[in-house]
Design brief:
By secondary structure, the chain is α/β, with parallel strands linked by helices. 30% of the residues lie in helices and 20% in strands. The chain starts with a helix and ends with a strand. Bound molecules: ribose-5-phosphate (R5P). Pfam families: Rib_5-P_isom_A.
Length: 303
């Protein structure tokens, strides 16, 4: 049964009137049970804040900044939504560059930290914080390194963050390293003499040390001690860190020694990242950036 034409017209007029009120944002009396709309539905973007204090940078800091800025410009694309933020002294420049793109560019993005330091960087810059358990797939992760060899294997963990860093690196479709020129070496252990950082559960540290000394050939492996606290460094995961130096003939095959260390019971993670990085960016003293790719290509980028 159809309604008479005057009734249909009446209903249509009422609907059109109500629609024009809504679209022209004219407030209308509330219906029973209806809630008032917020006065504006437009989200207000808070300004972001750079983590880098203003002032002149030393040559090394400038090199870190160049590497970080170039890597951000080349690897964070507008469509990227989930970004991993690594740890160390080069990463603040990564965040600085991301922040410089503005609140609008970053408003739909979430940033995944590799530890306490990067979490603080993300939060204090005004970026949105997420975690890898919410975002197990990351578009791109940018991180520092203690040293990087010709095949882009690297030592990480100088700041005891390598367990989370490896998880965030593995979760990323693209993992990119940023560092200054001192980290660009032929084989690992060239300038970084402290050894391979190894995160161990506290209960097992003495046994792991014994194995490193007598089985794996690192007689000088030591438990990392804290500087402003009595006792050992405790990682963000509540574990201890051992630093294990190895001879050159061992370090030229980092994957082999990484696998051997990882097999020791009590070891949580080893600070050797092998065959993981897509590219490594090294800022140079002359203001250029050396970019090494995982296919062996090397580029020089002028600032
Ligand atoms: O645990 C710390 C991390 O692996 C760092 O990314 C690494 O130590 C490099 O740090 P930096 O950029 O300060 O040399």
């Amino acid at each position: 049964m159809s309604l008479p034409t005057p009734v249909v017209d009446e209903i249509n007029n009422l609907l059109n009137e109500r629609l024009s009120m809504i679209t022209s944002a004219v407030p209308h009396p509330l219906l029973p049970g209806e809630q008032a709309m917020p006065s504006s539905t437009k989200s207000v973007l808070k300004p972001l804040k750079s983590p880098i204090p203003t002032g002149e940078l030393s040559v090394i800091e400038k090199s870190k900044q160049l590497a970080a800025w170039t890597a951000v410009d080349q690897h964070i694309r507008p469509e990227h939504r989930v970004i991993g933020i690594g740890s160390g002294s080069t990463v603040p420049y990564v965040v600085e560059r991301i922040v410089s793109k503005g609140a609008e560019a970053n408003k739909d993005r979430v940033f995944i930290p590799t530890g306490f330091q990067s979490k603080e960087l993300i939060v204090t810059s005004g970026l949105v914080l997420g975690d890898v358990d919410q975002y197990p797939t990351i578009d791109v992760t940018l991180d520092g390194a203690d040293e990087v060899d010709v095949e882009l294997n690297c030592i990480k963990g100088g700041g005891a963050c390598h367990l989370r860093e490896k998880v965030i690196a593995e979760a990323a479709n693209t993992f990119v390293l940023v560092a200054d020129y001192r980290k660009n070496v032929e084989y690992l252990g060239t300038n970084f003499k402290a050894g391979v950082p190894i995160e161990v559960v506290p209960f097992a540290y003495a046994k792991v040390l014994q194995n490193l000394h007598h089985v794996l050939g690192s007689p000088n492996a030591t438990l990392r001690m804290a500087r402003a606290k009595a006792g050992p460094v405790v990682s963000d995961n509540g574990n201890f860190i051992i630093d294990a130096p190895f001879d050159r003939e061992v370090m030229v095959k980092p994957y082999t020694i990484m696998a051997q260390i990882k097999m020791l019971t009590g070891v949580v993670e080893v600070g050797l990242f092998c065959h993981m990085a897509r590219a490594a960016y090294f800022g140079n003293q002359d203001g250029s950036v050396t970019v090494k790719w995982n296919d062996g290509k090397i580029e020089q980028v002028k600032a």
